[in-house]
Design goal:
Strand order of the largest sheet: 2-1-3-4-5
Radius of gyration: 13 Å
Helix content: 40-55%
Distance between the termini: 21 Å
Number of helices: 5
Number of domains: 1
Shape: globular
Length: about 110
């Protein structure tokens, strides 16, 4: 599975996903760190990536729109990188299962 991690989340999350056998990149890796949501959305759709974000704008696009990339919407308050990764780890199987079933918006809190 291919993931694109948005700017509100640390690049370490993309590295964690890649270490787990997924294709993953952070918006910083591809020169989109300051990009508007539309550019990130279009890139993810073009390369077949799932957007991982805390931004509810991506969730809204997925919920109300048609087409476009799937989104993993992280509903976690601001936290340190280590705590985020520890929190995310047990969620990953549920996330990948939902995406494999074809869910376009996976909300985790």
């Amino acid at each position: 599975m291919r993931f694109l991690v948005d700017a509100q989340l640390p690049p370490a999350l993309a590295r964690y996903l890649a270490a787990g056998g997924h294709e993953a990149e952070h918006v910083v890796d591809i020169g989109l760190s300051g990009a508007k949501d539309q550019a990130i959305w279009e890139y993810a759709a073009r390369v077949g990536a799932v957007i991982v974000s805390k931004d509810d704008d991506f969730a809204q696009r997925t919920f109300f729109g048609k087409g476009g990339p799937p989104v993993v919407w992280i509903r976690l308050s601001n936290t340190r990188k280590r705590e985020l990764l520890l929190w995310f780890e047990p969620m990953l199987p549920r996330i990948t299962e939902a995406l494999e079933r074809g869910e376009r918006l996976v909300e985790i809190a």
